[in-house]
Write a structure and sequence with these properties.
The structure is a homodimer of 232-residue chains.
Chain A (H helix, E strand, L loop, with lengths): L8 E3 L21 H9 L1 E5 L4 E3 L7 E7 L2 E6 L5 E7 L4 E2 L1 H6 L6 E4 L3 E7 H10 L2 H26 L2 H15 L7 H8 L3 H13 L3 E4 L2 E4 L2 H7 L3
Antiparallel strand pairs in A: 1-2, 2-9, 3-8, 4-7, 4-9, 5-6, 5-8, 10-11
Helix pairs in contact in A: 5-6, 5-8, 6-7
The structure holds a DNA duplex (30 and 30 nucleotides).
Chain lengths: 232, 232
DNA sequence: TTCAAAATATGACCACCGTCATGTTTTGAA
DNA sequence: TTCAAAACATGACGGTGGTCATATTTTGAA
């Protein structure tokens, strides 16, 4: 509708019906009426790699439903170092923590590759809550799992040494987002270290025949041994 | 009723009405009917310092409502180092993340000092959800804030150096739980470092006239300067 | 009151890894 | 195709802070 998202390119939305199973999210999946409702209020946007979807400190105006592509939620600390808090793919809901906390975004959402998503204004979301109370329970469940994931990664990044974290990052990124090729910097920001340390660790892993590097492409050769390197 | 909590001492519950404003939680505060309902199903327990309220990996059977005392949620990693994820005082709800995620506890809840709480079985909580849908929204709001807090502390512990984290810990523990005196180990587990580093940092802070130490008692002398040490 | 266990305190050591510098390769836009 | 910018790669250096050892003080239960 009238809402202009900075840096994005508004595109003609496809109907929720056509959105397909792989981008089906927990809100739309809650009740067949919901996609119909959203069709009337949503706008669709396309983002290119590295474009910002929303900025830290801004106020949430609604929810984003990722249709295709990957989005990273990035938090930059005072000294300038960036950390990837969460990664979200098709079917994920973006911006819901801030919306339900009634807080400004505390991190910046950035497109990792080409992203297509639709945006639904807050008012419409609240309507859904009124008509479908079970949606709140589903979101509660989802948010509770996100909190566990955050606390687990937190502890891992505190206690594991850099090579263990890089091994863990490789396995995670491979398992969940295998279609993507990641830069050393992106791996570092996920693993909580520096690009230099990632490179040195990758070189070491290659020497030990755990992985194979050809350019930016990393292939895991010995998954079980890499797991043991990660202490998993 | 018949539920026996290991290590706890079941006591005769006081009525929710008498529980008082300082232990009023977001569920009880949602609707006047709720405390009445809980009165019929809750059991009350008392724990002494260092007693475990629930163990990591166990399944949640209900919710704990803290009436008095402090509880820490502690996660121990493979190598044995312990981290305090969250601290909860009177009015806080304990064990709700796991309950709503439908997961086992991923951390252990330990009484920091003498704790009195009441336990309400899951079935009763679900009944409340049915009768009062707005409770789910309140919990959603609370959980969303918890996730921000976790992610913020995560980033701080990654990026700040040890003395900054100790300064931040002192200020936080003072602000939120001033009645408690903390051991060096407890401060370390909150700040994400070791008791030795906490001691060295405290000695340094005392030399700089930021704090005063007499035994286990720490008094903040120069709060604003301590804040700048914490980079806040 | 006694006394062992826990907490506090401090010094010495050194490994990990972040930082900086330098050079090479790759990428992607003009 | 060209070329500058970004990413990759590797070496050298040094500081932070974890670990261990040891001694002292405090705590709390018998």
């Amino acid at each position: 509708m009238g809402i202009k998202k900075k840096g994005s390119c508004e595109i003609t939305p496809i109907s929720c019906e056509m959105c397909g199973a792989n981008s089906q999210n927990i809100i739309c999946a809650s009740h067949p009426n919901i996609p119909e409702t959203l069709d009337r209020s949503k706008i669709s946007c396309r983002y290119k790699r590295d474009q910002v979807i929303f900025y830290s400190d801004n106020d949430p105006l609604g929810l984003f439903f990722i249709q295709s592509g990957l989005v990273k939620l990035e938090k930059t600390s005072e000294d300038g170092s960036a950390h990837t808090l969460r990664l979200m793919g098709p079917g994920a809901i973006l911006g819901y923590r801030s919306l339900f906390a009634n807080e400004p975004y505390h991190a910046t959402a950035i497109a990792v590759d080409q992203v297509e998503l639709c945006f639904v204004p807050k008012s419409e979301i609240l309507l859904i809550f009124q008509n479908h109370p079970e949606v709140a329970l589903r979101l509660l469940n989802h948010l509770a799992k996100d909190l566990r994931l955050a606390e687990e990664r937190w502890i891992h990044q505190m206690d594991k040494d850099a090579s263990e974290r890089v091994a863990e990052a490789l396995l995670f990124l491979q398992d969940h987002f295998h279609s993507q090729t990641w830069t050393r910097r992106e791996i570092a920001e996920w693993a909580g270290t520096t690009p230099e340390t990632v490179m040195r660790t990758l070189a070491q892993f290659e020497k030990e025949a755990l992985i194979d590097q050809s350019g930016r492409q990393i292939t895991i050769i010995n998954k079980s041994l890499l797991k043991s390197k990660a202490n998993l």
